[in-house]
Amino acid sequence: MLKIAMAQMEVVPGHPDVNTATILRFIEEARAKGADVVIFPEMAVPGYFLGDTWEQSAFLRDCESYGRDIIAASKDITVMFGNVAIDWQKKNNDGRVRKYNAFFIARDGELVQPDNMPYPYTIKTLMPNYREFDDTRHFFSLQKLARELGTTPSKLLSPVTLKIRGQRYRAGCLLCEDGWSDDYEFAPFELLEKEHLDFYVNISASPYTLGKNDKRNRVFGRQAREAGVPLFYVNCIGLQNNGKTVYTFDGSSTAYNEKGDVVRTLPEYEEALTVLSLAEMKDMAAEPESEEKDIAHIYRALHYGIRRFLENIHMKKIVIGISGGIDSAVAAALYAKVVGPENLLLVNMPSVFNSATTKGLSQELANNLGCQYMIIPIQESVDHTIKQLEETPMVNLGTGSETHLKVSSFVAENIQARDRSARVLAGAAAAFGGGFTCNANKAETTVGYSTLYGDQSGFLAALADLWKYQVYALAHYMNDVVYGREVVPQGIIDIVPSAELSSAQNVDEGKGDPIKYPYHDYLFRSFVERWQKATPEDVLEWYKAGTVEKNLGCEEGLVKKYFPTAADFISDLERWWNLFTGMAIAKRIQAPPILAVSRRAYGFDHREAQNGAYYTRRYRELKAELLAE
Fold first, then answer.
1. Cβ-based neighbour number of residue 40 at 10 Å
2. Residue 272's CB: how many other CB atoms inside 10 A?
3. Is 196 left (phi over 0), alpha (psi -120 to 50) or beta?
4. What's the CA gap between 294 and 598, in Å, rounded?
5. Where are the alpha helices (DSSP H) in 449-535?
6. What's the rounded Cα separation, in Å, for the pair 425 and 441?
7. Residues 120, 113 contacting (CB under 8 angstroms)
8. How far is residue 538's CA from residue 529's CA, in Å, rounded to a whole number?
9. Angle at the Cα of 74 (from 19 to 63), degrees rounded to 5?
């Protein structure tokens, strides 16, 4: 009776020594539990998102060396693991040494070669080059290898025959994307399906994205059911990044029986090992489908991501500027759970435009969290800066003439934001021995509703992949579930969102931000997260057809409520599109790293060029037509 262990491990990117130690520990645990086979994730030795570390030959040699340690540890147990494979005699298309994303199988100190492969490992066939993935930059695919050898992938892709305790088992080995072939010309799973297999194994390094696990259960469950054999999906946990965007890996490794039922799921964001009997899987009861709300998964991703990010940079103390608004309040509640209230300093920095209401709510939030708290008024320093700028002569060294700068009300707003971040928070963080946060949400990030060197500053933008409605949902979830009491004051949830940088944003008079979040959250989302991204042309087509709310997914009636005429609607659309494709790009390039949870996060996941706003010919025709009515 074959016993198969699924080893869900934390993979630390760029540290094969650490990862190999973890693998060896799990091999011993699997052996002690009587497992015949133990499965580890894709790229379990080196990690996956490494940037151009893949170009370092010394690093590649280390990965090979640690791979040999794993092979040597396979006495009396079959070890399946992901590592980079190198053919030092061949080149990639970039002229560097040939690298494969490979699936290794070792038994009794030897590698087990797939039936038809020219190497003693399975090579990844499908190379994702979308979103955060950039595989063909570094790795040579099975498809390319087949062309080079004058054959086809279908002749190279083959099962691995395992001989265990006198029995023969045929396993279909897939690497992550090989199981997601709907949009490819080639389907590795379907080719292996013809080989009369005993089970499939999909080793993955799959970042968390909201809703991905449900889709994977549908896709992989269907594959197992149609093939009529079990499928083991083994994913890693951990935190990996490609510079600008930070991804959590949630694990959620899953076993599917031959009926396609989910019979075992490992917990999110925890290392774990489970052993299943292959023969007994068909009779195992299906696990009930999770009824958890999306916001619960988002909270766990953020909490884990923040914690591991701080551990990676060795930061233990956090400073947050709180305004009495929802974004900074949610950030404070999140970080308090991660670092503890004793290591969290909240700083309220009022000016003459901050109301007694928001100052009181800031105090209430700090009291609820029981953290460190400071109030540092900024009006005196803001006035001093404005006075210096206006009264200091500006000398033209070519003519000798003197003029003076004039600080507009808009510039004065920016001075406030920069004084808070660049002076107060940066200084407080240094004195406190920590870092200060960027509390921007995704709507603000989309249109650059922030100040460079001001509230856009910080070491991490943990909320910048959440729309405003998700920030509110997170506030409710933390109050109701995480803390079980009101930590984020109801008054903060109820108050109109406002930057309070001028009298035009007086919250006591119901005046707030220019972004109408119930509508603009969804409009901006269509610019970024739709697979076929929306443009002003698409939006005007929907407006003409009366289907804007339906296509955006927002509440019915908002278009008429906010925009009585076509001219109003078009003016609003162009205002935000010009910002989204203009200055906001420059701001996003300079923004802190963003913790990703959505299907499209800013940074490396959403690659941008600073080309300015563009309106298609059809858009201009629609605009003229609508304005003429």
1. 29
2. 15
3. left
4. 11
5. 468-477, 490-494, 517-528
6. 19
7. yes
8. 14
9. 35
| pLDDT, tens only, 297-323 | 999 999 999 999 999 999 999 999 999
Unique residue bearing structure tokens 């209230």: 341
Q: How far apart are CA 37 and CA 31, in angstroms?
A: 9
- Contacts of 336-339 spanning 24+ positions with Cβ under 8 A: 336/369, 336/371, 337/303, 337/478, 337/482, 338/303, 338/306, 338/307, 338/310, 339/310
User: Is residue 32 classed exposed, middle or buried when 0-12, 13-18 and 19+ CB atoms within 10 A define those classes?
Assistant: exposed
Q: In what order do the strands lie in the sheet with 318-321?
A: 372-375, 344-348, 318-321, 435-436
Which phi and psi (to 5°) does residue 203 adopt? -95, 135
Bridge partners, 39 (sequence order): 6, 80
The DSSP element (H or E) to which 60 belongs, if any, is: helix 57-72
What is the value of pTM for the model shown?
A: 0.95
CA angle in degrees (0–180, nearest 5) for 555-556-560: 115
Question: 209, 302 in Cβ contact below 8 A?
Answer: no
Residue 340 backbone phi and psi in degrees, to 5: 90, 145
Q: 310-364 pLDDT, tens per residue?
A: 999 999 999 999 999 999 999 999 999 999 999 999 999 999 999 999 999 999 9
Q: How many angstroms separate the CA atoms of 618 and 439, rounded?
A: 38
Q: Which tokens is 76 given? A: 């009396």
CA dist., res. 213 & res. 206, Å (int): 10
CA distance 48 to 122: 17
526: Cα within 13 Å, side-chain hemisphere:
22
Length of the chain: 629
Cα 608-613-617 angle, rounded to 5 deg: 120
Which of 359, 375, 449 is closest to 413 using CA atoms? 449
Q: What is the pLDDT of residue 1?
A: 86
Contact indicator for 453, 414 with CB cutoff of 8 Å: no
Q: How far apart are the first and last CA of the chain?
A: 76
